[in-house]
Amino acid sequence: QLMYAVLPFLIVAASFLIWFVVGKITKQSFFAKRTERKQITLKDKFVVTSTNVLYLLYPTLCKNTFGLFDCKMIGGQPYLKIDLEEECYVGRHATMMGLLGVGQLCIYVIGLPLLVLVFLRRNRASLDTHVAHARYGLFYGGYKMDRFFWEIVITMRKVSVVMLSVFGPELGPEKQAQVALLMLMVCIVLELFGDPYKAETPRHKILGRLEFSSLLIEWWTMWSGLMIFQMNDNVSSEETVGVVLSIVVIVVNVGLLIWFVAQFVLAKLYERKEALAAKALAEAATGERKQSFL
Which of 176, 171, 179, 166 has the alpha carbon at shortest distance from 63? Predict the structure, then answer.
C-alpha cells in the first residue's frame, strides 16, 4: 500500500527526469517557451507521459485503495481479506486505513477525476487550442465540446466496476452478476442519450458504434454467464443451451476484438494517406512558388 501510495509521485518525478535528461542530451531547455504555435515542447511530452501512465494506472490505484476497506467476517470478527491474519478496524489496520486508505481515496480515487474535471471546466473556452490538445487531449479530444466532461463519466464506470470486483464477491455470484448487468444497462442508456463522441466526418461515427457495441457485448457476456451458472448440468437440454451460449459468447467477443483491430489499422492507413497527400500538396506549392520567383 505504501508503494502504491507513492507510485504516482514517483511516476511524475521519473517522467520529469527522463525528459529533462533528453533535453540535456539534445541541447534543448526543458523550460523553453514555445516559439511556434504547433511546436511540441519537452514540457508537453512530460505532461503527456505523466497523464497517460497515471490514466492507465488509475484502476489499479482504485483497486488497492478499496482493498484496505475489504473485510471478511470470520468467527464473528472482521479480517482483512487480502491478509486474513490482519484484524480489521483495530491497531495497525485502523491506522493504515485512516492514513493510506482515506488518503488514497481522497487524493486518487476522488481527487484525480475531480482535478481533471475542474481543469477542463475552467479552460473549456480554450480546449480547442493546440497547447491544450497536445497536453490534455487524452481526456476530451474525441468528445463534443459540450461533452468535454465525458471522460469523468467513463472514470465513474471504471470505479464502479473496480468496486464491484472488490466488494462484490460478498454478494455471491448471482447478485454480483445482477448488479453488473444493472451497471452495464445504465452505461448503455447514458451512451445513447449522452451521444458524446465528436463526428467531424461520417468516418468518425465509428467511435460511438465501437463503444456502444462493446457495452452491448459486455452485457450479453454477463447475462450469458449468469444463465450458464444457473443451469443444471444434469439436464441434457440445459447443458446444450449452455454450450451454445458459451460458443456464441466466444465468437462474439473474438469478432468484436477483430473489428476493433481492423478499424484501428484502417484509421492508421487513412491518416498515413492523408499525411502523404498533405506533404505532396505542400511540396507542389513550394515548387510553384520557386518557379514564380524564377
Answer: 166
- Distance (Å, whole) CA 286 – CA 294: 13
- Span 221-231, average pLDDT: 90
C-alpha to C-alpha distances, 111 to 58, 102, 116, 163, nearest whole angstrom: 11, 12, 9, 17
96/3 Cα distance (integer angstroms) = 13
What 3-state class would DSSP assign to 74? strand
- Residue 134 clears pLDDT 80, i.e. is over it: yes
| Count of Cβ atoms closer than 10 Å to residue 280 Cβ | 10
Give me the residues paired with residue 74 across strands: 77
- Read off φ and ψ for residue 166, nearest 5 degrees: -85, -50
- Give the pLDDT score at 250: 95
12-49 pLDDT per residue, tens: 999 999 999 999 898 888 888 877 777 888 888 999 99
- Cβ proximity of 221 and 248 under 8 Å: no
**pTM score of the predicted model:** 0.82
Give phi and psi for 80, each to the nearest 5.
Answer: -65, 125
224-233: b (≥16 Cβ within 10 Å) or e = bbbebeebee
Q: Among 68, 62, 102, which residue's Cα sits nearest to residue 82? A: 68
What average pLDDT does the chain have?
88
DSSP for 136-204 reads: HHHHHTTB-GGGTTHHHHHHHHHHHHHHHHHHGGGG-HHHHHHHHHHHHHHHHHHHHHH--B--SSGGG
How far is residue 57's CA from residue 104's CA, in Å, rounded to a whole number?
A: 13
Q: Average pLDDT in the 90-115 region?
A: 91
Q: How far apart, in whole angstroms, are the C-alpha atoms of residue 269 and residue 272?
A: 5
Place of cell 515548387: 287
Amino acid making up residue 209: R
- Cell for 156? 465513474
Rounded CA gap, 189 and 209, in Å? 14
Tens digits of per-residue pLDDT, 254-279? 999 999 999 999 989 998 998 888 88
